[in-house]
Amino acid sequence: MRKKIVAGNWKMNNDLSLTEGLITDLKSQSKTSDAQVMVAPTFTNLWPAFQSLRETDIEVVAQNMHFAENGAYTGEISASMLKSVGVKTVILGHSERRAYFNETDELLAKKVDAALNNEMTVIFCFGEELDDRKSGNHEHVVESQIKNALFHLETSAFSNIILAYEPVWAIGTGETASPEQAQDMHAFIRTTLANKYGSEIADSVSILYGGSVKPNNAKEIFSKPDVDGGLIGGASLKAEDFFAIVNAF
Ligand code: PEP
């Protein structure tokens, strides 16, 4: 059975007091689904979030990290630093990191290695742009992103990999991939994995969908057989909306 996961990416939103408020609201929600819940605050709020959520089943995860263990990388954060504040999972390859911080597949491969070497779990994000979708190139783009960043890994690494398909044209735009588009791509991703690692591995990896998931569309998207959960941006900033999505399973 694959894990169902709903992860909230808070991006560069909320200072300490707003983060504490959001966490208080999250703790007042009740979960009726069996999805694993994760939230990704900014770096400065990871430790207070971890302390506040440690008695709950909400996992605190990071939005990014550097590939080096330590050293002269001003402004960066390493895997061991994340682990020292209770973080065991990191989001890598988000389209905003790729677009605004020039993160390439090659760089992401190094980050993935660093996270796995530190026994962390990776939520690896990828997805095509609108032009790729319009030109029918979307599968090719997604396949290359996955191959370039992940296909050097040993089979055993996939127990610590969660995939997140996030079509760039659907992130923060209010436009969602249709449940059928999401299902088609998730099935394609699983076949791509199966061709390289075999169907047992492919069937065991959770593949999340991200891109304008909201309380009113989550149920239909999550009902698709290859969609194992969601990576939620905007709607994760309100506890009630986020839990409505969690409970859509
Ligand atoms: C995201 O940034 O990962 C995301 C899916 O954002 P939104 O839900 O706002 O589209």
From TrEMBL:
Keywords: Cytoplasm, Gluconeogenesis, Glycolysis, Isomerase
Catalytic activity, as annotated: D-glyceraldehyde 3-phosphate = dihydroxyacetone phosphate
Pfam families: TIM
Enzyme Commission (EC) number: 5.3.1.1
Subcellular location: Cytoplasm
UniProt-annotated catalytic positions: H94, E166
InterPro entries hit by this protein: Aldolase_TIM, TIM_sf, TrioseP_Isoase_bac/euk, Triosephosphate_isomerase, Triosephosphate_isomerase_AS
GO function terms (MF aspect): isomerase activity
Main location: cytoplasm
Pathway info: Carbohydrate degradation; glycolysis; D-glyceraldehyde 3-phosphate from glycerone phosphate: step 1/1; Carbohydrate biosynthesis; gluconeogenesis
Binding site for substrate: N9, W10, K11, G172, S212, G233, G234
PANTHER family per the UniProt record, alphabetical: TRIOSEPHOSPHATE ISOMERASE (PTHR21139)
Family: Belongs to the triosephosphate isomerase family.
Function per UniProt: Involved in the gluconeogenesis. Catalyzes stereospecifically the conversion of dihydroxyacetone phosphate (DHAP) to D-glyceraldehyde-3-phosphate (G3P).
Subunit annotation: Homodimer.
Full protein name: Triosephosphate isomerase
Organism from which the protein derives: Meridianimaribacter flavus
Source species taxonomy: Bacteria, Pseudomonadati, Bacteroidota, Flavobacteriia, Flavobacteriales
